Amino acid sequence: MSDTRRRVKVYTLNEDRQWDDRGTGHVSSTYVERLKGMSLLVRAESDGSLLLESKINPNTAYQKQQDTLIVWSEAENYDLALSFQEKAGCDEIWEKICQVQGKDPSVEVTQDLIESEEEHIEEMPETSPLIDLPTCELNKLEEIADLVTSVLSSPIRREKLALALENEGYIKKLLQLFQVCENLENTEGLHHLYEIIRGILFLNKATLFEVMFSDECIMDVVGCLEYDPSLAQPKRHREFLTKTAKFKEVIPITDSELRQKIHQTYRVQYIQDIILPTPSVFEENFLSTLTSFIFFNKVEIVSMLQEDEKFLSEVFAQLTDEATDDDKRCELVNFFKEFCAFSQTLQPQNRDAFFKTLAKLGILPALEIVMGMDDLQVRSAATDIFSYLVEFSPSMVREFVMQEAQQSDDDILLINVVIEQMICDTDPELGGAVQLMGLLRTLIDPENMLATANKTEKSEFLNFFYNHCMHVLTAPLLANTSEDKCEKDAVVESTKSNTICPDNYQTAQLLALILELLTFCVEHHTYHIKNYIMNKDLLRRVLVLMNSKHTFLALCALRFMRRIIGLKDEFYNRYITKGNLFEPVINALLDNGTRYNLLNSAVIELFEFIRVEDIKSLIAHIVENFYNALESIEYVQTFKGLKTKYEQEKDRQNQKLNSVPSILRSNRFRRDARALEEDEEMWFNEDEEEEGEAVVPPVEKSKQEDDFPDSYEKFMETKKAKESEDKENLPKRTSAGGFKFTFSHSASAANGANGTNSKSVAAQTSPASSNGSSSKNATLTTAVTATKGSLVGLVDYPDDEDDDEEEETSPRKRPRLGS
Q1: What is the pLDDT of residues 522-568, one digit of tens each?
Q2: What sections of 592-706 are H helices per DSSP?
Q3: How many CB atoms lie within 10 A of CB 358?
Q4: Are the C-beta atoms of residues 260 and 216 closer than 8 Å to each other?
Q5: Residue 277 gets which letter from DSSP?
């Protein structure tokens, strides 16, 4: 059997029929060869010496008492007892004893007791009379201190001592002795009283706490705890509690019971947090009742205050009254902060009621006023209150700000006040800004928005946020990456010696926080953030920060771009390639030189992701524009891998291109999904600057088959007429990369939704394209309209971003076919 070590005290019964403590150790049950049987061994905790070696006899009567005590007679006048610290340990050893004796562990006694044994067992600790307390006199203090400290390790004796102290009104007598000792300056007596009172607290009995923490006793209890023998000089806790700590009533509290509870809670909390030493491993549960005492006091205080609506209304009225002076307002805000902190002790249901009461009384408008104040302390306390509210119910805060937006200017909206506080944080480490950023993140997180049937909260709030608040959040970012700075940057070719970012560490920290929030938006707010990035050309501005001398900020900018590319959204990819937005990233990589650091690894990871995910448009753009600069980087195979992918794709497209006429000549053909994807990749933009896309004739299975050859021949005639003029243009490789040629069956074509798209196609010509491609586009467009819907235009409208987003569930889905 495995050894089970448990902490126990070993007792033996002496000639006077009193139990003697033989020491504390760890018990195990094991087979002892010498005794030829399973035995109980107790090794001393201090030096490992053997305190007890007792064979478990099959015929001995063992008795379990009060869950933590096992008692038996070893010989006629030799009784033993093991007092366990934990019930679990007692149960385990009891099972071993019952196993040896073949008994069910649920029994309390393993054998029928003979009369003499019964007498012995009746006098065991469990049934022995209450502990006899020495008389409460000065010369007995040492004896009392020894008694109190000796019982702490035995749960049974702790119970008995607590009962004795309670029954005899002993604590009040001890505290009278304390006053005598203090008057006589009897240091030795005061040191004993410290041990006694501390020991009584560790008895962990609520009934004793009620006595000790009553108004008449608590200051004397604190007084006793000042005289720690380990200190050269006593502490002055009473002086602090009576003179330094002032009870501030922001509004007079008329209920005397409530006042008394507040005083008591503060003092008991002080005893627990300041006076009592940190409990050791074996003492950690001794103060659980003290913690509960404080907890229930707090619950009672919150409930009593909450029920007094007149009191709370008065507090709110003063908080929002312009006539209230700053000191008073500071006290009111601190009161609310503490009130909210206390409320965390409430049960969830009561906490809901508490915050609803605050909301009804107008906590949010009040916070809006105080968060904009100059006093740093007031703002900090208001932020803490705001964090309680956001944590409790982000939806409640969102609802308030959206209602407020209908009546107020953007400048004074609560969220904008919060953003302003974040931007204007004066702390060099931006402690407040970090906290506020976390709260903003919670508010704009779609995960905690209520999912109703029509999902209104998410769309309504995000519309509100991007219309009214986003410009405030991004203002510092845009101001620090402004156009004139970007031009200067272009002139100096972003050399490190001419950094265009502010050198100020605090500003860099702030921009990093804003970028973290924007990166969160990219991940969670699909089309809202996409529109914003496009309209503000935000990624270009962010990438200016790649030149920052603060590497953490450059990494934040890179992380923002990495999140965008990670979405594998063709809409974003075209924005990046047309804006040549890889340039600042590649410049940063080259400027970093041969240094093997986080920036180097992060940039390479970005390109590796593009290679592994095979994002064709980006691969083509990178290889065509930057391969010469990157060719020399050979310590990773990433850039060679990109070139290989690019060449493979080019070959594949050339093969496809050669097979296009044969495909077109077939009036019926079937392709698998992979072929469809490859075909889609072939038709895209005719030219980098040209938004209008080429027009192709797909097969419409829903139409009469007879119509198709006729329409197709008209198209082919037009096509042949143009071939002599612009052979080069079918298809022309874009500088953004690759041949784009798309065949697709369109849902809208199949449904016959032809009117709108045909008109749109006819209207779409691109002045930015070359003459050849422009005239070709126009001719193809004519062909489309002439065939009354048999042919389909693939068109990209530069301004129609919303439609694009709805269509764009995947990058491949983007080209729209209409008939």
Answers
A1: 999 888 999 999 999 999 999 999 988 899 999 999 999 999 999 99
A2: 598-613, 616-630, 638-665, 673-680
A3: 24
A4: no
A5: P
Give the C-alpha distances (Å, rounded to integers) separating 560 from 513, 533, 691, 792: 12, 11, 26, 38
Distance CA 754, CA 251 (A): 73
| 635 SS3 class | coil
Q: Closest Cα partner for 600 from 646, 560, 627, 635?
A: 635
CA distances from residue 672 to 99, 669, 676, 677 in whole angstroms, order as listed: 72, 10, 6, 9
- The answer for residues whose C-beta is within 8 angstroms of residue 318's C-beta and 6 or more apart is 250, 251, 324, 328, 329, 332
Output the DSSP codes for 106-161.
T-SBSSPPPHHHHHHHHTSTTTSPPP-PPPS-GGGHHHHHHHHHHHTT-HHHHHHH
Q: 321: which residues sit within 8 A by CB, 6+ positions away?
A: none
71 burial (CB, 10 Å; 0-12 / 13-18 / 19+) is buried
Within 8 A by CB and 6+ apart from 505, the residues are 428, 550
Distance, CA of 317 to chain centre:
35
Q: What is the dihedral of CA 403, 407, 409, 411, to 10 degrees?
A: -40
Q: For residue 313, give every residue at least 6 positions away whose Cβ sits within 8 Å of its Cβ, in sequence order, or none.
A: 361
Residue-wise pLDDT tens digits, 665-681 = 444 444 444 444 444 44
How far is Cα 277 from Cα 488, in angstroms, rounded to an integer?
63
pTM, two decimal places: 0.58
Output the CA–CA distances (angstroms, integers) from residue 183 to 179, 186, 235, in the order listed: 6, 8, 17
pLDDT, mean of residues 356-374: 85
CA atoms within 13 A on the CB side of 305: 29
